[in-house]
Design a protein that fits this description.
It is a single chain. By secondary structure, this protein is mainly beta. The protein has a single domain, classed as 4-Layer Sandwich (Metallo-beta-lactamase, Chain A), CATH 3.60.15.
């Protein structure tokens, strides 16, 4: 899986931008800081910063609150799935357990060790 550091976030699979609250034009922006629950005026459908389930151009995106911020499960139109996680709390959700690949921040969780304890085997990618 291709992950590239850009500005204060990461471009994931050439489609998604994961950051605190930044945006990159032309990408689906996934923020780990929770946004406002009610926004007025024109909104970008390409920015997700609130828990919920989203269907954007056939990509299924589930956003839940993790230990340190928002976490995401994504199932792309191609069928590939991955999750961005910050704690084992997210594995209470079946969608997250079914992800083929996991992306995590090393300073927030030792994901490979946690997956081993849960007897889950998936590819892991650390954000550095």
């Amino acid at each position: 899986m291709k992950i590239e550091k850009k500005d204060n976030g990461y471009i994931i699979a050439d489609e998604f931008y994961f950051s605190a609250d930044g945006e990159q034009n032309g990408l689906y922006n996934l923020n780990y800081n929770i946004g406002e629950d009610v926004l007025y005026g024109k909104q970008s459908s390409e920015k997700i910063n609130y828990p919920g389930e989203y269907d954007i151009q056939g990509n299924y995106i589930k956003c839940i609150s993790g230990k340190n911020g928002l976490c995401y499960f994504i199932k792309k139109t191609s069928g590939e799935s991955f999750a961005i996680v910050d704690s084992v709390k997210v594995f209470e959700d079946d969608d997250f357990c079914s992800a083929e690949k996991f992306i995590y921040e090393e300073d927030k969780i030792d994901l490979p060790s946690e997956l081993e304890k849960m007897e889950l085997s998936s590819e892991c990618y650390a954000l550095k």
